[in-house]
Design goal:
mainly beta, seven-stranded mixed sheet, four-stranded antiparallel sheet
């Protein structure tokens, strides 16, 4: 059974940092791509950053230079380091494995709130 559990969200002031973690069980990050998504109230869920099995990364323009996605293949944990947070980064953040044995898996989400 595949399970993704996010942690590390919280409420911060603009300019501060948070590090989100996604603990994966039942699937292997070393052979899977994964991504971090976010969804603000009234908005569609959007891909924020992704990392391939080889460690190649991509980011949306809104977070480039501020967010860093990484993973620890031994611990089977993915991270999203978020620096210079802005109020527009406020959302529920989800980790996702898009294709493990033909299925798509999501975590339960963690709330990030950034106040000005």
């Amino acid at each position: 059974q595949v399970r993704l559990v996010e942690s590390g969200g919280g409420s911060v002031q603009a300019g501060e940092s948070l590090r989100l973690s996604c603990k994966v069980s039942g699937a292997l990050l070393r052979i899977n791509s994964m991504g971090w998504y976010r969804q603000a109230p009234g908005n569609r869920r959007e891909l924020v950053a992704k990392i391939t099995s080889a460690g190649d990364t991509n980011y949306i323009d809104a977070v480039k230079g501020r967010f860093t996605i990484s993973k620890d293949n031994i611990k089977n944990v993915a991270y999203l380091q978020m620096n210079g947070l802005k109020p527009e980064d406020t959302a529920v953040y989800y980790c996702n494995i898009p294709n493990w044995r033909g299925a798509n898996f999501w975590g339960q989400g963690t709330q990030v709130t950034v106040s000005s």
